[in-house]
Amino acid sequence: MAIKGVDHVVIRVEDFDAAVATWKDKLGMALDRTDESEALGIKQAFFNMDNGGYVEIVAPTNPDAAVGKALASRGEGLHTLALEVDDLDATIKEFEASGVKLIGVGTPQVYVHPKSANGMLLQLNQKK
């Protein structure tokens, strides 16, 4: 198991349109696309970077969903740091064996619980 690097970062915001405008017009990032996930209760904007990573802006469409609750309790800011791993299954086994609390094992999105990562929500991704 090896962590290869940062895949992307997710930033939670209150005002989706204003945040997209900031990252696009003021910070000069190229907007790739926007989307909405009813299942996650969020609007999303994706800004690709030259190194293959990206910045994702999220705003809640449902205040009771995870991003809505995080925004209410912690405000705007870094929501998730997504790490690329070389072998997701091996990483899960190694982390579980060492006592790391994981969220979403068995689904396409596996996370390290913030209590196991100094308050940071980590997403684990394996590129195909």
Automatic annotation (TrEMBL):
One MF term from GO for this chain?
Answer: metal ion binding
- What keywords would UniProt list here? Metal-binding
* Membrane-crossing segments per the record: none
Any one of the GO BP annotations? L-methylmalonyl-CoA metabolic process
Q: Looking at the record's lineage, which domain of life comes first?
A: Bacteria
Supply the InterPro entries for this chain.
Glyas_Bleomycin-R_OHBP_Dase, MMCE/EMCE_epimerase, VOC_core
- The VOC domain is annotated at 5-128
Q: Which PANTHER family match?
A: METHYLMALONYL-COA EPIMERASE (PTHR43048), METHYLMALONYL-COA EPIMERASE, MITOCHONDRIAL (PTHR43048:SF3)
Its protein name is: VOC domain-containing protein
In its UniProt entry, the species of origin is given as OM182 bacterium MED-G24
